[in-house]
Fold these 2 entries.
Entry 1:
Amino acid sequence: MNGRLASEIVSLSLEHLTLVAITLGIAMAAAIPGAVLLARRAAARRWVLGFANIAQTIPSLALFGFLLPLPWIGGIGKRTAVIALCLYALLPILRNTLTGILGVDAGVRESAVAMGMTRRQILWQVELPLAVPSIVAGLRIATVTTIGTATIAAFIGAGGLGVFIVRGIAMMDKPQILAGAVPAAAMALLADEALEWIERKLSPA
Amino acid sequence: MSAHAIVEIRHLSCVLGGRTVLRDISLRVEEGETVVLLGRSGSGKTTLLKAVNGLTTPSAGEVWFEGRPAAQWDPIQLRRRMGYVIQDAGLFPHWTVAANVGLVPRLENWPPDRVAARVESLLEAVGLAPGEFRERYPRQLSGGQKQRVGIARALAADPPLLLLDEPFAALDPITRFELQRQFLHLRRTVRKTALFVTHDVREALMMASRVALLRDGALDLILTPEEFLAASTAEAKAFLASLEENWRQDERPPRI
Ligand SMILES: Nc1ncnc2c1ncn2[C@@H]1O[C@H](COP(=O)(O)OP(=O)(O)OP(=O)(O)O)[C@@H](O)[C@H]1O
Ligand SMILES: [Mg+2]
């Protein structure tokens, strides 16, 4: 392997990671508070989850295609890619956070009320901590999905490891494709392992 | 001077899921007094405690606490002035014993070292060696140990009223007797006011200033333990009969 390829793998991997990190940051910032709001609103919850489920089924390449011509959010580049990736990352985090909060034992919640905790204290001190393992499980699904889907985002100019794949397909150059696919797969596996470890650490034994 | 009522329940009824669980209950608990709610399983004892605590909204009637109707209280303040020992403990699974016991003092913004000292002395008081139990999680405790943590938690902020829902039910007879005696001592020394739920007549007669007998969600009678021993309602007699039956069994163990 020549030096130029190696350094390109490193720099595109970093770009890939950045893309993934930004996506997950935004998705968490939207999905976790969203889940907190939806936890107390059953009707709205059905609508939002239904919509998110549909969004999830749109093939990623098609979604990038839809977003491109849109004003403000469209166009070639990272921003469009991040928006599309966020749409995919949102659902698992939202759903798992909801599952975690709604799964808190009714007796535990009642006990919190009986002790004179306010709703905010119950949320921060009881519901969210007890939901953490489930939230991390959702984050894990979102992370693995995003690392994979982000390779496709190179088609709309997002950069990252997908650049190798796009180039490799265009030039029918198998090693180029592998130079993108292998590090992406390794990244996904590593992230999966790391988050699984955290999830285990945080779950009550 | 007439005694000061800490809790006054006025014509309270509760309908839950279409069933009348409590009907027209009136009851005063005066300062320093322990009123024991005695009744069969399903007679509405827990529901009555929940109504006092504001966990259950009455469908009729009202609860007064410290001279004011509960509706005029901030529910958070009201609950923090009532130490509640929940049936089956209701501990927070993600917190250690120390964190569980120190909850209300923390909510009341006590300084951490004062909370820690309070937790320490409460664990001692309920017979759990602090060094051994402080850092354990509820899942690492036996049923009776959980119950004692629940009792310590209810006492933590030294509330004027205690609500105790079968607090000694999961204990072995020796520990139970020990805690019953400690509770009586506590009542004499700091004049704790308490609503104490049990289905055990013997415990009721031991702990009570007055026994309130619940039958099918209605108050059958409310009497001092001495009066209760001579009570004539069918439900009281049924409970007293179970007491005699116990004594007879104590004298003459059943043959196998
Ligand atoms: N949320 C509810 N909805 C409908 N019925 C209820 C509800 N909560 C309690 N009940 C019913 O009300 C009755 C009284 O219940 P409660 O828990 O107060 O009984 P208890 O006297 O505490 O019994 P135990 O000694 O078994 O704890 C029971 O028949 C119970 O099934
Ligand atoms: Mg009960």
Entry 2:
Amino acid sequence: MISHMSTPQLADATGTGLAGPENVIEVGALRQKYGDFEAVRGISFAVPRGEVFALLGTNGAGKTTTMEVLEGYTPATDGTVRVLGLDPIRQHRELRPRVGIMLQEGGFLGDLTVAETVDLWKGLSQDAGRPVTLSGSTELPGGFTLMGTRIRRVDRVTMGALELVGLEKKARVKVKQLSGGQKRRLDLALAVLSGPEVLFLDEPTTGMDPEARRTTWKVVEGLRDAGTTVLLTTHYLEEAERLADRLAIMHEGRIHTHGTVDEVVATSGDMITFRLPGTSWTFGDLPALDGVTPVLTYAGGGTEVGYTLTGSDTGTRAHAALRPLLAWADAHGETLGRLAVRRGTLEDVFMRIVGEV
Amino acid sequence: MKTDVLHAVRLARIDLTLVGRNTTVLFNVMLMPILIAALYSTFPVGETAGVSGEVFVLTGVPGLMLAFAVFINLVNAFTSRREELVLKRLRGGQPSAAAVMAGSGLSALVLFLFQVVLLGIWVYRFEGILPANVPMMVLAAALGVAVFGLIAAAFSGMTPNAEMAQITVLPVLLVMMVAAPVAFPADVLPGPLAVVTGLLPVTPIVEMMRTGFLGADHFTSGGEKLSMVGQWVAALPSIGILLVWIVIGGLLARWLFRWEPRHG
Ligand SMILES: Nc1ncnc2c1ncn2[C@@H]1O[C@H](COP(=O)(O)OP(=O)(O)OP(=O)(O)O)[C@@H](O)[C@H]1O
Ligand SMILES: [Mg+2]
């Protein structure tokens, strides 16, 4: 649905010695202070062209702050940031037409209708030499007066933007009458309208219903497939798992872990759990698997046994550990009740990071 | 540059649409100045500077309109849009900072000129006087909007929220209502006061407007008829003062204007 315009060659105006211009976003040793408080404490990452990068983290971790430095709202206290090889503050004028931004919250003209808002954004984009190429399936007629209000035509381009986010039925509703999630949808439509080369999405799906969230994911995936580079923040781990090529988890101004979803999850280990009858077991009775001793909890007249496998071969370690475990069970004539093997999740990693600091 | 102009025009049109939809703003901007004009024109008797007191006052009323249609309107607009994060969003979108400011200025100029036209119709209808030098009036309006637009931007920076705007505009409003040479020429005031009044930005605007309306020298209390060239020559010091104010206003705005709500 989004036909993407050809992306011009990146200017290599960095001269920073950071990675080359194939990185659309570069953050090097960024620090950001508000008065005495250091919200971002030296983070570095790079996002290559066409990648979706997710920043996860606790409330107040510094995600929005990082985004706003990249968007050119505030100069970095220390460190370097480059977007498309350009300085977001000094080369703002050059950068602006090529970037789409969805802020964490609002900022609409409430008395405009949804269609008028899109029309305004569309016009501004056109004026800047980036005509909007979306096309909807219908248009709404206008040019007449209904109960004292002038009804304007809503063209196909605007309808296309609204259809993209499922707001086509709200075209003539005032923005201030939209629900929270509907405003988020409108926000998304505006951010992607001009076919940006780089898209910043700050908690794009917060407040959206599950269907809208899925729509948003499809929009982001569509853009990524067309070559758009996306930096997004989210509190929904499944969103990061679904969308992000790579992600970083922030806490108190620092990045604690980063990589592909698989790489990050691998650090959390695979879980093997089962139940043994009786409460007389100690961990000396049980075998070490992959060099790991189990954790035992006694409950309901039985013993819950859990191993967390953190061996280096993430693909095969669970399988490798099951063999000696089953051999042990056979040898001792025990049955492993409710035996379960579970891959580590992003949530495990997240909770560990938040917990250990 | 061309993009900025297109953006400013587009934003100004949206501004005007929104003014039309907001009754409070509509009242403040459109009716208030007319009411004040009606009120002021009932005071004077006799002659001032070669014209009837009523004509003198009416041709000076644009100075007051400037306070309402431009200054108060813009302080309100800048402040509420900052608090509602509209300015932040616009700045993150396609338009540049200059285009956003220019858009607001442009819509204020349109409103202001519209009021001056209404006033012109009134003056013609009741006094039989047609404006003598329209370009001078338009220039006065444009310079006036530039100066007071920038001062409004600076004042909105000191205004924490839209309700407080009613209070922060008061000092400027009072000075404008008292010092603007609406009811009598600036130079009939005692020495130092006349100098100070003459240097305030509202004075040259009122004097240029009145001179433009009447085709006579209203930069002094003389009020003698002037040729077109004579009018422009007489206006030069006023234009100079306004240009200086644009610089001052620009510096103040740069220093005080805020795009985002202050935290904490
Ligand atoms: N303008 C400001 N002045 C002072 N402190 C600020 C300002 N903006 C943000 N902070 C502080 O900086 C820290 C990081 O804020 P930021 O908005 O970047 O967090 P975040 O990771 O986006 O959190 P969330 O998930 O809640 O959106 C917070 O502790 C916040 O209180
Ligand atoms: Mg945030």
